[in-house]
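Researcher: Last one for today. Full complex below.
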Amino acid sequence: MAPLLSVDEALARVLTRVVVLPSESVATERADGRVVACAVEALVDLPLFPSSSMDGYAVRAADTPGTLTVVDRVAAGRPTDRALKPGEAIGIATGGVVPECADAVVPIEELRDEGETVVIAQAVSARANIRDRGNDIAAGTTIARPGTTVSPPLLAALAASGVASVECARRPRVTVLTTGTELRAPGESLEPGQIYESNGAMLAALFEREGAVVTRLHPVADDEEAHNTAFGLALECDVLVTSGGVSVGPHDLVRRTLAAHGTEEVFWGVAMRPGKPLVFGVRGDTLVFGLPGNPVSSLVGAVLFVLPALRALQGRTVSGPVYRQGVLGAAVTPRPEREDFARARIEHRAGLDVLFPLSGQESHMIVAASAADALVRIPAGDAQLEEAATVDYLRFDGGPIGA
Ligand code: AMP
Ligand code: MG
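Model: Here's the assembly. Have a good evening.
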């Protein structure tokens, strides 16, 4: 194995090979999680007209305090043509159009309603309880810049501004291919030496959360012919992610098969634990990640390299992973030459994120890893990291990881 690349260098090499996917028009209501490709401008002023922020009476501020005659009522979506004359009030609901010549709204709670008249004891100031036209945004102003991920509030902002569709990067088409003669699907019966396949479901779920359209192929046995057939098919996508078969054993066929199919190997081996023998290559516009088969190695490799690539493919401004800072809840012993990505539990104490590495840090221990809510980055080194040392970590909180 050539000298191992650092995690940062390996990620940089991945990201330089990313070409942002072409865009497509997406209905605003379907755009949650999509990445905006072209700037979007508001089509209308928001609010579009001066409207009331309270249920009350539209008045002329100069008429207050005073007793005013109620001459009409306005509801949301039901304006009046009537301009307010001195001494008059018009009933108005929240969101109603403020009538001509009215310059304030007195909330119901602040007056006495006597049916034909309202008695206002206090003076109100001009513009009180009126939402001015355009005070949220003016038509033509940018609401979403390229590279922004649409969130539910942004989706509402787009809809409120009259935007029915948005140009967004196409979703990456990702193929997940697991390798290993020993793999069987949960639910099947196991022969001696066989195990349940678990990486496929995990990887597919991780990538779908990042906006990918995932195709899962059947696990491929560790024989050359099966690999050749499967990889021929599997490479027809934006991103191929395999698991297993990237170490140095006689049954590790992934690198050889990728080479036979014209894939340029960009690197093999990253100075990290778990997940060292990760391989990355490209064929045409297709990115290929060969993750090691141990489930936690596959998880960490996917989080550190595949998820950022998926974000970058969609043109996200920040592709991450974005580390947060916390402190160790217990001392840890680093590896001399590799960064360690330790699974940990977070406790929030006195404003700090305190990270407790879980027992069970071996790369096959997916059940132990599934209890983690953080992946803690322990730099390579010889000296023990003491309790309370500051460390970087990625959060596993059910949402996109490290985004
Ligand atoms: P490999 O990277 O192919 O040498 O596999 C390393 C370890 O991970 C072996 O114990 C495999 O049985 C296991 N493994 C490989 N692929 C999977 C998978 N898809 N699901 C669960 N375990 C796997
Ligand atoms: Mg294998």
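Residues 61 and 125 are 6 Å apart (CA to CA). The first helix runs from residue 7 to 15.
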